[in-house]
Specification:
2 domains; binds S-adenosyl-L-homocysteine; 10-stranded mixed beta sheet; 12 helices; 14 strands; two-stranded parallel sheet; DNA polymerase, domain 1; alpha/beta; 37% helix; single chain; TIM Barrel
């Protein structure tokens, strides 16, 4: 059994403590942290300004978790690249690298599988396996940047898994990602998406990290939300909206609401009216997504009905955009690649 410490998940302070305990000088920890998070080496051997003796010692105590690119799908219509990664224990997760006018953004996974059971989502069909370590979330970004040669300027936690169900590791990941001695990404360029784990929204508000919180709402009332999102039985729409209002009051950060349109389920004028009422007065933005068809379910939608719904909302004073579809030719909804890998 591998009992080595996952060095890439340690904060610089934790690493320093461990290095001092080995009888080494403090600045060594800074050097090692930089090798890991800035130069992103895959082995201790590559840390050329560290003595061979210390490198050997590090190798005995620590491991550097790496991800193996099992599949890379490149879109021929835009510059979207979808990665299927194999984790050290043989499990799989996905990331998607996307190009916007302002730069490259990557969508990363936070768990292997998901417990939340949203009916339209491929990631949850085979259930939940385990949480990802902070290092395994970071490496999705580092590996894609190295492989593609494209500088990554933004991250969205919208891949496989529920970020707030892996709260501690996700917070640790965010702190590592934004460490000025490490990758140094501003958390203004990071979005965390949740299906609505209400107590963790309150916890996150306390941290004041500067991230954008995205809430997957997908329906304007308890009846229609519970029909597609089991999490709504635990924390209903009103409780969720109260948490969102608290988050905004505490952090001053506008919440982005995700709304996946499903034909005949949540896309009528009446749904728009209820949604506008629910969000009314709140400082927010609504992202409309025509639901991606997954082969296990028969939900459908299209851009036209999304645009129609956006128009209804606009008339009611709610700011909404229809999300641009990227990489339409390389795979369907998130979680599909991993499902295929597990089934083959
Ligand atoms: N668990 C988190 C983040 C992962 S999913 C959450 O629920 O927010 C990222 C977004 O994609 C969520 O808004 C999710 O509801 C949405 N999504 C999942 N499957 C989809 C599908 N088939 N079509 C459109 N959106 C989907």
């Amino acid at each position: 059994m591998d009992e080595k410490t996952d060095i890439l998940s340690l904060s610089e302070a934790e690493l320093t403590e461990r290095i001092l305990a080995l009888g080494e000088k403090k600045f060594r920890a800074g050097q090692i942290f930089k090798w890991l998070h800035v130069r992103n080496v895959g082995s201790f051997e590559d840390m050329t300004d560290i003595s061979a003796q210390l490198r050997n010692k590090l190798d005995e105590i620590f491991c550097i978790k790496s991800l193996f690119i099992e599949k890379r799908l490149e879109s021929s219509i835009d510059n979207t690249v979808k990665y299927l990664y194999r984790l050290p224990d043989g499990e799989h997760v996905e990331s998607v690298l996307m190009e916007y006018e302002h730069g490259n953004t990557i969508c990363v996974s936070t768990q292997v599988g998901c417990k939340m059971g949203c009916r339209f989502c491929a990631s949850t069909i085979a259930g939940y396996k385990r949480n990802l370590a902070p290092s395994e979330i970071l490496q999705q970004i580092y590996t894609a940047q190295r492989d593609s040669g494209r500088k990554i300027g933004g991250v969205v936690l919208m891949g496989i898994g529920e970020p707030l169900d892996n709260y501690d590791n996700v917070v640790k990941f965010l702190r590592l990602l934004s460490d000025p001695h490490g990758f140094g990404m501003s958390l203004r360029h990071v979005s965390v998406s949740t299906c609505g784990i209400v107590p963790r929204i309150y916890d996150l508000a306390e941290l004041g990290l500067g991230i954008t919180l995205s809430v997957s709402l997908h329906a304007p009332d308890d009846r229609s939300r519970s029909a597609v999102m089991p999490v709504n039985d635990r924390w209903g729409v009103e409780e969720l909206m109260t948490a969102c209002r608290h988050y905004f009051a505490k952090t001053g950060r506008r919440i982005s609401f995700e709304y996946a349109l499903i034909n005949g389920h949540n896309d009528s004028r009446e749904d728009a009216r209820k949604l506008a009422e629910l969000l009314g007065g709140g400082v927010c933005h609504v992202n409309l997504i025509p639901v991606n068809k997954i082969k296990e379910r028969d939900f459908t939608s299209d851009r036209r009905s999304a645009q129609r719904f956006a128009k209804y909302l606009g008339e009611l004073g709610i700011n909404a955009t229809v999300r641009r579809t990227l990489g339409a030719d390389i795979e369907a909804a998130c979680g599909q690649l991993r499902r295929e890998a597990e089934q083959s």
